[in-house]
UniProtKB/TrEMBL annotation, chain A:
This is Cytochrome oxidase. The chain crosses the membrane at residues 20-41. Keywords: Membrane, Transmembrane, Transmembrane helix.
TrEMBL record, chain B:
GO terms for cellular component: membrane. Keywords: Copper, Membrane, Metal-binding, Transmembrane, Transmembrane helix. GO terms for molecular function: copper ion binding; cytochrome-c oxidase activity. The chain crosses the membrane at residues 9-29. Residues 65-167 form the Cytochrome oxidase subunit II copper A binding domain. It comes from the Archaea. The keyword Hydrolase does not apply. Its main location: other. This is Cytochrome c oxidase subunit II. PANTHER family: CYTOCHROME C OXIDASE SUBUNIT II, NITROUS-OXIDE REDUCTASE. It comes from Natronocalculus amylovorans.
TrEMBL record, chain C:
CDD domains: ba3-like_Oxidase_I (cd01660). InterPro entries: Ba3-like_Oxidase_I, Cyt_c_oxase-like_su1_dom, Cyt_c_oxase-like_su1_sf, Cyt_C_Oxase_1, Cyt_c_Oxase_su1_BS. GO terms for cellular component: membrane. Residues 27-524 form the Cytochrome oxidase subunit I profile domain. One of its GO terms (biological process) is aerobic respiration. Keywords: Electron transport, Heme, Iron, Membrane, Metal-binding, Respiratory chain, Transmembrane, Transmembrane helix, Transport. This is B(O/a)3-type cytochrome-c oxidase subunit 1. It is a multi-pass membrane protein.
Length: 52, 167, 590
């Protein structure tokens, strides 16, 4: 089906997943920003502060 | 077992993130003082709420200068008392229990949210701020009429609030 | 790995015709459940949004129970047993030990499902006294007909026997291949089942000791907090029971359809071991807002849960790296330009890749759910179903459907009826779920509850921070409709494939990992060690909370009121068995 378009064989030692690292760093940044937003704005900024 | 350097970087970042999340939650629990619903209330006989000093007559009571306690019964398919009336800028502790099945108690759109389990009393303390009206929803399925189970929390301006007992 | 050699490969059906038949039967069972589940899903969407209310709001909960049970028990677990049978037979390269035994566990699972389904659907017919309007979580004192609990028990026994089948194959293989590493797919299957056996302790006690005798009238009441806690003892690991087959497919099939190879076999093993260790001692994170459980226990659940993120985060890297490897082998270049070189026209690839993308989003909302005090914001709001429609509803379901497009031809020797329809189907699922789940998350944040027939109240309105309720409802309806259409296209495509003539050369061998099993420390394959550690963690996490719940509320109550009140057809049994069982249980506890 799809594994048939291989033009170059790349083995483990010559493969640096740069693109993966870039994508995952973007994901990391999104997670951190969203967490801070959700926790400090949506949650702590919401009505009726729970204290016990 | 060789792990690629990039994967090691990600592993370290993932650990930092996890510790960061735990730190945030701990900050909320300590510096902000948000406590979880816990086990400090004794269990109660759900079949004998009408003999219980708190729940026989569900009500709001003033217990301190600016402190109130609301004894709330959640049952198929009503909350009592309804509405729950408290003043703005006060500390309100809800004690909520059920005589029948499991219910939820959430002041809609706010952080005041707890499970209500027969035999257990949920204790939840909040600080009210602005005057206004909030809906209360049962947010756990409790039977075929679950969707009609609602109540109201009315937060009165401080100078207009009077306890019914005083009238 | 040239295409000429590949097309000459015999298929799974050629090599193991008897096993292929079991796998096909399990998958058909799964897809029938998916079809029914989707039907109940769209009815709910239209009902909640008040677009069309075919049934009464009381019956909504019957529909919701059916949707939940069919989707997350029948659809997912039938698919699991099918794919795991395929994975074990394929990776050990040997038939099952006794095909009659294999059919036995499959038959038990079907029987259990039918029993539970009869009990649930009985809720539509008022004149008969059978119902199970208790939703997927069946929290007591909501009470179902004994057929429901009995069906669940038989279904579970079927899954346990299935696991034993796979262990038996592995054991026989090990005798013939001493000292060899467990093949990756078999390793994943065995680890999953070990987790499942440990998790099942909770639900078995809940159902066999409490709920089934209670529904039969043998005991009068149960402790609702105890049965609820025992449910979540099982209820969180079941989440991983849905996910681990999807992970198996991401680790072993997705690299192949991307045109590459798995980046790291050892890390895949580490990830599965972490799931075994951490899936169970976290169930209390579903009970952050339960009275009667000390906040200290909740904090322990929080910590365990946060570390349970690790295997999923590691998976994200390894799987994307495997895709990148495929893309670069296919000539992809640049920092991100390789994404274009991926086989986006292949529905198996596109479906799994989109499923993975949704899992990244679902992972985030899961982190919020897991975050102890922030749970006050979202607990039991529509946010929560928004979350799990991304995880089990897309990461798992879409992966299963996409993988079917890859595997089905090898089980039938027939191509898929239409690849363009298959491609449209996976994209429709992605778009439909993006809309529906987005609306659910937003609705949850403004306090709209889950699990209700009519989220429109008399005394107040929900106030969105932006947009309007009508817009959210529109997203829900459009999303739900696209999902239903997608499910219909999926099943129709398979049904239409039946009529195609058989062809040869559909075999698809799986390439070895770039970093193979020999790079993995031997200790990773020590199943006894990991099971022992997992058990210790479960004991540490659960002994004190359970003891405290029993100490506070008693083993059998205070119970609340059973609902609905059913005719106590067990009342004659009551007099005979009550002294017997209570004596036995109290004796057993001391």
């Amino acid at each position: 089906m799809s594994g048939d378009a291989v033009v170059t064989e790349i083995d483990h030692d010559e493969f640096n997943p740069r693109g993966t690292l870039a994508l995952i760093l973007v994901y990391f940044a999104i997670l951190v920003v969203m967490w801070v937003f959700m926790y400090f704005v949506e949650f702590l900024g919401n009505d009726l502060t729970v204290i016990g | 077992m060789h792990i690629h350097n990039y994967e090691k970087i990600w592993l370290v970042l993932a650990m930092i993130m996890i510790v960061g999340f735990l730190t945030t939650v701990t900050y909320g629990a300590t510096a902000v003082g948000i406590e979880m619903i816990s086990d400090e209330e004794d269990t109660i006989d759900p079949g004998a709420l009408d003999e219980d000093p708190r729940f026989a007559e569900p009500r709001v009571e003033q217990v301190g200068e600016n402190e109130y306690e609301a004894y709330v019964v959640a049952q198929q398919y009503i909350f009592s008392p309804d509405p729950i009336e408290v003043p703005a800028n006060s500390t309100v502790t809800f004690y909520v229990t059920s005589p029948d099945v499991i219910h939820g108690f959430q002041v809609a759109g706010t952080n005041a949210n707890t499970m209500v389990i027969p035999g257990e009393v949920a204790k939840l303390t909040v600080e009210t701020e602005e005057p206004g009206e909030h809906g209360i929803v049962c947010n756990e399925y409790c039977g075929s009429g679950h969707h009609v189970m609602e109540g109201k929390l009315i937060i009165h301006p401080e100078d207009e609030f009077e306890m019914e007992d005083d009238e | 790995m040239s295409s000429a050699i590949e097309s000459g490969e015999p298929t799974f059906l050629d090599r193991f015709p008897q096993e292929a038949k079991v796998v096909r039967s399990a998958l058909w069972s799964s897809f029938i459940a998916l079809t029914l589940g989707a039907l109940f899903g769209i009815i709910q969407t239209l009902h909640r949004t008040d677009v069309l209310r075919v049934f009464s709001s009381g019956n909504y909960y019957t529909i919701l129970t059916a949707h939940g049970v069919l989707m997350v028990v029948s659809f997912t677990i039938f698919f699991l047993v099918g794919i795991y049978t395929w994975a074990v037979v394929r990776s050990l390269d040997r038939p099952v030990e006794d095909i009659r035994y294999t059919w036995t566990w499959y038959g038990l699972m079907v029987l259990g499902t039918l029993m539970a389904l009869v009990a649930i659907l009985g809720g539509f017919i008022d004149s008969i006294d059978i119902s199970a309007d208790v939703l997927f979580t069946f929290y007591a004192p909501l009470q179902a007909h004994p057929l429901f609990y009995g069906g669940l028990a038989i279904f579970l026994i079927g899954t346990w026997l299935a696991g034993a089948d796979w262990f038996r194959s592995w054991y026989a293989w090990k005798q013939e291949n001493p000292g060899e590493r467990i093949p990756l797919q078999t390793f994943m299957v065995l680890i999953t089942m070990l987790m499942w056996y440990i998790a099942s302790i909770g639900i078995t006690i809940a159902v066999v000791i409490f709920l089934l005798p209670w529904s039969l009238g043998i005991i009068d009441q149960v402790n609702p907090l105890l049965t609820r806690t025992l449910f979540w003892f099982w209820g969180h690991p079941v989440v991983y029971f849905w996910l681990m087959p999807a992970y198996l497919l991401w680790y072993t099939v997705l690299p192949k359809v991307s045109g590459g190879r798995l980046f790291s076999d050892p890390l895949a093993r580490v990830v599965f071991v972490l799931f075994l260790l951490l899936s169970t001692p976290v169930g209390i994170h579903h009970q952050y807002l339960d009275p009667g459980i000390a906040d200290g226990f909740k904090f322990i659940a929080l910590t365990n849960t946060m570390f349970l993120l690790l295997p999923s985060l590691l998976t994200a890297f390894t799987v994307v790296a495997s895709m990148e490897h495929g893309a670069r082998q296919r000539g992809g270049t640049g920092l991100l330009g390789w994404l274009r070189a991926l086989p986006w026209a292949n529905p198996a690839f596109t479906g799994m890749a989109l499923a993975g993308l949704m899992f990244a989003a679902g992972g985030f909302s899961g982190m919020i759910n897991a975050g102890l005090n922030i749970n006050y914001l979202v607990h039991n709001t529509l946010w929560v179903p928004g979350h799990f429609h991304l995880t089990v509803g897309t990461a798992v379901a879409l992966t299963f459907m996409a993988a079917t497009y890859w595997l089905w031809p090898q089980l039938t020797n027939k191509p898929i009826f239409s690849r363009p329809i298959a491609l449209a189907q996976v994209i429709l699922w992605f778009v439909g779920m993006a809309l529906m789940s987005n609306a659910m998350h937003v609705a949850g944040l403004i306090g709209i509850p889950r699990r209700t027939a009519e989220p429109q109240y008399d005394g107040f309105d929900f106030i969105p921070t932006f947009g309007s309720i009508a817009e959210l409802d529109l997203q829900l309806v459009v999303g739900g409709t696209l999902l239903t259409l997608s499910a219909i296209l999926f099943v129709s495509n398979l049904v239409l494939s039946i009529s195609l003539p058989k062809v040869s050369g559909l075999g698809q061998p799986l390439p070895p990992a770039l970093s193979g099993p020999d790079d993995a420390p031997k200790v990773l394959d020590n199943l006894k060690l990991w099971t022992a550690i997992a058990l210790v963690l479960v004991i540490l996490a659960y002994t004190l909370p359970l003891a405290s719940i029993v100490d506070r509320g008693g083993l059998f109550g205070p119970g609340g009121t059973p609902y609905p009140t059913m005719i106590e057809f067990g009342s004659t049994l009551l007099e005979i068995y009550t002294p017997l069982t209570t004596d036995w249980i109290s004796g057993w506890l001391q």
